[in-house]
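User: Structure please.
Assistant: Input sequence and predicted structure:
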Amino acid sequence: QVQLVESGGGLAQSGGSLRLSCAASGDISSINSMSWYRQSAGNQRDLVATVDSRGYANYADSVQGRFTIFRESGDNMAYVDLQMDHLKPEDTAVYYCNAKWRRLPDIRDSWGQGTQVTVSF
């Protein structure tokens, strides 16, 4: 099992910055990728950024060049942060941390509780 706890988020002005953090505990050696998703009102949950076990990152087109995902491990924990710069009102959403981990033969998902990000004009 992998458990995720998020922190950060809140309110920012357009053009500002916020940083989200996510701490993973449990069987962290089984984690393949760690990601951030977001869901705005009335919309589906979409992938924002992901980083694999080698540190390779991919971003949604809408955040490319503005957001940066970081992944670290230590002390039997894994961490994934999302640095969000040059925020836009359309970045307003609930952001969720995700980990995909191996429970062979399956790949399973764990989710954080979600954290609200609101960007004002």
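The two ends are 40 Å apart (CA to CA).
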